[in-house]
Design a protein that fits this description.
This protein is mainly alpha-helical. It is built from twelve helices and two strands, in the order ααααβαβααααααα. α2 (about 45-65) packs across α9. The radius of gyration is 20 Å and the shape is globular.
Length: about 300
């Protein structure tokens, strides 16, 4: 297929490529939040974790010359924030929503403070695999250039779904998330299980942040996240706490985020910027559609604070 054969296919191709690029941070943050919430705890601090992970990953990648070491550092930074969140929430009479908001502000503030030296330097990028080698059209090649973390996110969604359904660890997380009393009756350690789930969820959010700074958009700046950590919470609710549904919902959010750039790429010069608000409109619409004063959210963990 040559460039002249693309025609009207350029818009869906641009949206496909944009959905793959934009959805990857959503995948990791939503899977991390899904794991945390399935244990009965909500973490609204993921926006701060995402931004701090982006800064930590970019800074370490620049200093070491390795993007993958940067990803590891971002995961460790996210896990550290998850550990702090989990420890604070285990204290008596502490509200996990309030703690999450406080840690979101802390993470963003620390990222802005420590990240100032890395705004100008250029760190190495994460690798991508080209699935468009068969075409001569640059639009097809660009759309089918898939980052390794996107593929890892898909595999992680499948693995997490299997874990919840068929392993003792997944069963323990589900039981703890549904009922403290039932978990204690089975001899499960409630606080330790939720702590571990929160740490793992924070680490995944940190990986999502590393993708932002090391691949797309591929730089560190203070406005890199644009609220994706908070939108991931709505995404998890929309996906009904199902890891595989989180993956597809992330693609939906990614497609919404790619709508504006796709229109701009085909020469739409008036009003296209309004479509940049599509992810936020979608988030608001999903929150309204899933809210109810008369019934519990379908599939929601019973111990989750937002369902009580």
């Amino acid at each position: 297929m040559s460039e002249s054969d693309i025609g009207l296919w350029s818009v869906p191709l641009a949206m496909l490529g944009g959905a793959i690029r934009v959805s990857t941070p959503f995948i990791f943050v939503s899977l991390g939040e899904c794991l945390t919430e399935r244990s009965g705890r909500i973490n609204l601090g993921l926006e701060g974790v995402l931004v701090f992970g982006a800064m930590a990953g970019y800074g370490v990648a620049y200093e070491t010359g390795s993007a993958w070491i940067g990803v590891g550092a971002a995961a460790m930074a996210g896990g550290a924030f998850g550990a702090l969140h989990g420890w604070l929430c285990s204290l008596p009479k502490v509200n996990d929503i309030a703690i999450g908001i406080a840690l979101m502000l802390l993470g963003m503030g620390l990222a802005f403070f420590f990240g100032k030296p890395y705004i100008q330097p250029v760190a190495p990028d994460l690798p991508a695999i080209s699935f468009g080698w068969w075409s001569d059209a640059p639009q097809v090649v660009a759309a089918l250039k898939v980052n390794v973390l996107f593929l890892a996110g898909f595999a992680l969604a499948l693995a997490m779904a299997w874990m919840f359904r068929a392993t003792r660890i997944g069963l323990a997380v589900r039981v703890v998330g549904d009922s403290d009393d039932a978990a204690r009756a089975l001899g499960l350690k409630v606080n330790q299980t939720r702590f571990a789930a929160t740490v793992a969820g924070g680490a995944l959010a940190g990986v999502g942040g590393a993708y932002l700074s090391l691949y797309y958009p591929g730089s560190w700046n203070e406005g890199i996240s644009s609220g994706q950590g908070l939108m991931a919470v709505a995404l998890v609710i929309f996906a009904r706490w199902n890891p595989i549904a989180c993956f597809w919902a992330a693609l939906l959010f990614g497609g919404a985020g790619a709508l504006g750039p796709a229109l701009q790429s085909v020469g739409v010069t008036q009003g296209y910027y309004l479509f940049y608000a599509a992810p936020y409109v979608l988030t608001l619409g999903l929150l309204i559609a899933t809210s109810s004063t008369t019934r519990q959210l379908t599939g929601a963990p019973g111990a989750l604070s937002i369902t009580r």
